[in-house]
C-alpha cells in the first residue's frame, strides 16, 4: 500500500486548533476526515512532518560492530542485552535484536533437554532395562549420584539460545562452565542423602576421587553390613581408570550405566525439587556464598518420602525404556 496524501497547511491548522480545544487524536481524525495515524504523526513531530528522508538506509551500528554481534550471538546462550554488553557496542537493545534477527543463519531455539539417541545408545539402554526389569528391592541398595550447576540468576542454563544453523544444535547440560554460580556434587540412597560437596567445574578424576572419599563412609554407615551399589553417569572423570579402581578397592559394586540416560537417574528429580526450593519466588543471588547457603538449607528439606517415591518409580522407568525400544521415557 502506498503512502497517503500529506496534510495540507489548512488541515495542519485545523489539527492545531482542535488539539488546543482539548479534542483527542481520534476525535480530530474524524472531524477532518483523515486517519488517526496521520494526525498523531503530525503532532509528534510538527517541524519535520512531510520532509523526505535523503540518502540510503542509515545504521546505528557499523559493519564491523554488526559482524561482532553476529559472531558473539552464534550458538550463544546469552540474551541480546548481554550480547550487547559483551560486544561493547553503543547501540540500543532494539538495534542489537534487529541485527540478530536480520541474520539468516541465526534462529532462536529452545535448548533440547533430552540428548540424541542413536541405534547403539538405544540398544545399550534397552539391554540395561531388560537386565534390571525384575529389580525391586535391589534398587534400595543403589546410591544415585550426579553433579549439578546452580546459577546466581536462576535455574540451570538458559532455556533458549541463538542457534547458528551452520553448527550442531545445543542440548541442555549440567556440566558446563561454572561462571556466575556453583557446581554441586550430591548423592541419594533409599535411606537418605549424603552431605553435598561444592566442586570445581574443571574437576579431574583425582579430585573426584577425593569427593568419593568423603561421601562413601557416610553411605557405608547408612547401609552397615549390607552390600551396596554406586551409580554414576559416563562422564570422563567417572569412567577414568583411577576412579573405577578406587571404587573397586572399597568393595562397593559399580552399576554399569547406559549412555545418555538422565531420565532413569532419579537424582535428576531430586535436583528438580532442590532447584524449585532454591529459586522459589524467582529468587536470584548476588554472590556464591549466599547461593551455597540457600542450596544447603533446601537440601536439608528433602524428605525420605520424596526420595522413596522416585525409587518406587524405577521399575516403571525400565518398562518405559522397553516399551519405547530404548528411546526416551516420560521421566
Automatic annotation (TrEMBL):
<dbReference type="GO" id="GO:0006313">
    <property type="term" value="P:DNA transposition"/>
</dbReference>
<dbReference type="InterPro" id="IPR038717">
    <property type="entry name" value="Tc1-like_DDE_dom"/>
</dbReference>
<feature type="domain" description="Tc1-like transposase DDE">
    <location>
        <begin position="142"/>
        <end position="291"/>
    </location>
</feature>
<dbReference type="GO" id="GO:0003677">
    <property type="term" value="F:DNA binding"/>
</dbReference>
<dbReference type="Pfam" id="PF01498">
    <property type="entry name" value="HTH_Tnp_Tc3_2"/>
</dbReference>
<dbReference type="InterPro" id="IPR025898">
    <property type="entry name" value="Tc3_transposase_DNA-bd_dom"/>
</dbReference>
<dbReference type="InterPro" id="IPR052338">
    <property type="entry name" value="Transposase_5"/>
</dbReference>
<dbReference type="InterPro" id="IPR009057">
    <property type="entry name" value="Homeodomain-like_sf"/>
</dbReference>
<dbReference type="Pfam" id="PF13358">
    <property type="entry name" value="DDE_3"/>
</dbReference>
<dbReference type="GO" id="GO:0005634">
    <property type="term" value="C:nucleus"/>
</dbReference>
<feature type="domain" description="Tc3 transposase DNA binding">
    <location>
        <begin position="3"/>
        <end position="50"/>
    </location>
</feature>
<dbReference type="Pfam" id="PF11427">
    <property type="entry name" value="HTH_Tnp_Tc3_1"/>
</dbReference>
<dbReference type="InterPro" id="IPR036397">
    <property type="entry name" value="RNaseH_sf"/>
</dbReference>
<dbReference type="GO" id="GO:0015074">
    <property type="term" value="P:DNA integration"/>
</dbReference>
<protein>
    <recommendedName>
        <fullName>Tc1-like transposase DDE domain-containing protein</fullName>
    </recommendedName>
</protein>
<dbReference type="InterPro" id="IPR036388">
    <property type="entry name" value="WH-like_DNA-bd_sf"/>
</dbReference>
<dbReference type="InterPro" id="IPR002492">
    <property type="entry name" value="Transposase_Tc1-like"/>
</dbReference>
<feature type="domain" description="Transposase Tc1-like">
    <location>
        <begin position="66"/>
        <end position="133"/>
    </location>
</feature>
Amino acid at each position: 500500500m502506498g503512502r497517503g496524501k500529506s496534510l495540507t497547511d489548512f488541515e495542519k491548522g485545523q489539527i492545531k486548533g482542535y488539539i488546543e480545544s482539548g479534542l483527542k487524536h481520534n476525535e480530530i481524525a474524524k472531524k477532518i476526515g483523515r486517519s488517526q495515524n496521520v494526525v498523531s504523526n503530525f503532532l509528534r513531530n510538527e517541524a519535520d512532518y512531510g520532509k523526505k528522508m535523503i540518502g540510503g538506509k542509515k545504521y546505528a551500528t557499523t559493519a564491523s560492530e554488526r559482524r561482532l554481534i553476529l559472531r558473539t550471538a552464534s550458538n550463544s546462550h546469552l540474551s541480546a542485552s548481554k550480547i550487547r554488553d559483551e560486544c561493547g557496542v553503543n547501540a540500543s537493545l532494539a538495534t542489537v535484536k534487529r541485527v540478530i534477527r536480520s541474520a539468516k543463519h541465526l534462529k532462536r531455539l529452545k535448548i533440547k533437554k533430552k540428548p540424541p539417541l542413536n541405534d547403539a545408545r538405544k540398544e545399550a539402554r534397552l539391554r540395561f532395562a531388560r537386565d534390571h526389569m525384575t529389580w525391586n528391592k535391589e534398587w534400595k541398595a543403589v546410591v544415585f549420584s550426579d553433579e549439578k550447576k546452580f546459577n546466581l540468576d536462576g535455574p540451570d542454563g538458559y532455556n533458549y539460545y541463538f542457534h547458528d544453523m551452520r553448527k550442531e544444535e545445543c542440548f541442555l547440560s549440567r556440566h558446563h562452565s561454572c561462571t556466575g554460580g556453583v557446581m554441586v556434587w550430591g548423592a541419594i540412597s533409599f535411606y537418605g542423602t549424603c552431605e553435598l560437596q561444592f566442586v570445581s567445574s574443571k574437576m579431574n578424576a583425582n579430585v573426584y576421587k577425593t569427593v568419593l572419599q568423603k561421601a562413601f563412609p557416610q553411605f557405608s554407615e547408612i547401609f552397615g553390613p549390607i552390600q551396596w551399589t554406586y551409580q554414576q553417569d559416563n562422564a570422563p572423570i567417572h569412567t577414568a581408570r583411577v576412579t573405577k579402581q578406587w571404587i573397586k578397592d572399597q568393595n562397593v559394586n559399580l552399576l554399569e550405566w547406559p549412555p545418555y540416560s538422565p531420565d532413569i537417574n532419579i537424582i535428576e528429580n531430586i535436583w528438580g525439587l532442590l532447584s524449585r526450593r532454591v529459586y522459589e519466588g524467582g529468587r536470584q543471588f548476588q554472590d556464591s556464598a549466599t547461593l551455597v547457603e540457600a542450596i544447603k538449607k533446601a537440601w536439608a528439606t528433602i524428605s525420605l518420602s520424596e526420595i522413596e517415591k522416585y525409587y518406587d518409580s524405577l521399575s516403571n522407568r525400565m518398562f518405559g525404556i522397553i516399551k519405547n525400544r530404548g528411546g526416551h521415557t516420560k521421566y
